[in-house]
Amino acid sequence: MSKIRKLSKNVFQKIAAGEVIERPSSVVKELVENSLDAGADDIRVELLKGGKGLIQITDNGCGMSREDARLCFESHATSKISREDDLQRISTLGFRGEALASISAVSRVMLKTSEEGGKKGTLLIREGGELLKEADIAFPRGTSLEVKDLFFNLPARKKFLRSERAELNRVIKYMTNAALSYPEVKFFLKHGSRKVFDYPAVKNLKERIFQVHGSTLLEGLVKVDFQDEELRLLGFTSRPPSARGDRRLQIFFVNNRPVRDNTLQAALNQAYRGLLEKGQFAAAFLFLEVPLTEVDVNVHPAKAEVRFRDNRSIFQFIYRSIGNAVMKELGVKEIYTEQKEGKEPAYRIQERKQPPFLYHKEESLVYSAKPFPVQEEEKAGPHVLGQYLNFYIIAADDKGIFIIDQHNAHERVLFEKYQQIDRGEKWPCKMALTPLLFEFSPSQVVSLEENRELLEETGFRVDSMGGTSYALKEYPDIFKESEAKAVFFSILEGVGLEKIEKKKHLILATMACKTAIKAGESLSLEKMAYLVEELFKTENSALCPHGRPIVLRITKQEIEKGLKR
Ligand code: ADP
Ligand code: MG
Known about the structure:
By secondary structure, the chain is an alpha+beta fold. It has helices at 9-20, 24-37, 66-71, 99-105, 155-158, 164-181, 205-219, 262-271, 311-330, 406-423, 442-457, 481-495, 500-515, 525-537, 556-562, and strands at residues 42-48, 54-59, 108-114, 121-127, 130-137, 142-148, 186-191, 194-199, 221-227, 232-238, 250-254, 257-259, 284-289, 295-296, 307-308, 370-371, 383-388, 392-397, 400-405, 429-439, 461-464, 469-476, 551-555. The strands form 5 sheets. An 8-stranded mixed beta sheet has the order 5-4-3-6-2-1-7-8. The protein has a 5-stranded mixed beta sheet with strand order 9-10-13-11-12, sandwiched between helices. The radius of gyration is 28 Å and the shape is globular. Residues 30, 34-35, 38, 59, 61-64, 72, 77-80, 94-101, 143 line the site of adenosine-5'-diphosphate. Magnesium ion binds at residues 30, 33-34, 94, 99.
């Protein structure tokens, strides 16, 4: 008997759906792309339960006829390409004709659409790929799609969905990218009864960046507009020393399609070498225009990646464009020359000095050392010998030598101090002399609203000032004003994603991290001695609140063995 069987349509559609539709944000992405392809300039998305319960999207695009409405759920049904040739020059966001087939195979969908508006609309209800109802309705020109109970018939996939909050965050991330690439389109997002954002149509990218990220970010950006025969790069990028602590705001679009791409990212970061502090990254919103024949957009199931025909010249072009934009802004005339990936750039603004090394790397003292759990009886603590590279405190007692990470150590000390304060009645707080103003991203706003009570409990009180602006009115009185701001900002970044029971830990750990001595800071002997003493008094001097080791110890025996004494 043969072992090979053809899968039923029902099964293979579910398999195919899994490729395209991974989670609520993939549904939103496909549907928003359809609305944009339909020429809409007003797109509303409403979600329940992070999109796991319901995703509803309404647009004012071209709408569909009755016949098209029936067809659009078929696999490989599309109005966007028709011949093989067309694959070489795809100018729409969609082209595979698979999204609606996939979505409707794994959820309950209701489509309402009309080409002309008025009474001539169509209603279709489908469930798991089956048509349940078709009817005439009155509907304004455009399309609305309700997607309920995603993966109701695919429990294996449903299990992999994350918390409502995490799924919502992904939707926010996609929608903000879409909003950035289509400033002239109004985007609206609501979660449950809460409006997450509402960006009315604006004239250009600059105004959209302002709507999404506020004026502080915008002020730190310079415009990029560079063109050669074939390529064009448009957008905004950081004006040094403005920068950010991570790469999250490095956003690339190729022919207006948001993409992840290593070449683009490498070129951007290369252009900033020598211009930013270590650990700092440019923010960038970059739109690359490439001839349709020079780029393949059909390489990723969710169309999140593209492939360039000539990576090298794309790299060079981005590198040069950004370099020129930034240099011009900084008043440096040097023109960017050919640049190989990984090599130092031809220009240099500032030479960064390395602290003198006391030991050569290869003859490092710590080669055999392991993280060292500090035991009870040793709580008296060792005495400080000195500081190494402004990063580590070297201390010793008669049993061995300690290498202590100064930042992690201080973090641990502060963390336990904050825990102690937190066990008390209420965090003592003070009023800001003048309100400290912030501009928050949409996901920070959601995070703030969700965690307001917890934040107030730890001494942070914030008022909305309209739009993306908020004012910090009160903060814990152990902090300086500048610290309070940094602490609060980082708390918002992290706390939204944390499980309820871990939120407090995260808040206290963030406070500790932001107020602790930095790696790279030079310390006096007194300060170090005090820190070491405090560290060895803590309950857990082996690990910092984030779980990284604090102390390495080399025992006297190890030293003797190594030196063959
Ligand atoms: P693709 O976008 O790759 O063509 P989809 O499955 O996403 O495939 O959509 C199938 C077809 O349905 C589209 O080609 C388009 O003609 C039609 N369609 C889908 N969404 C909309 C919409 N919001 N407005 C108008 N037409 C739409
Ligand atoms: Mg589509």
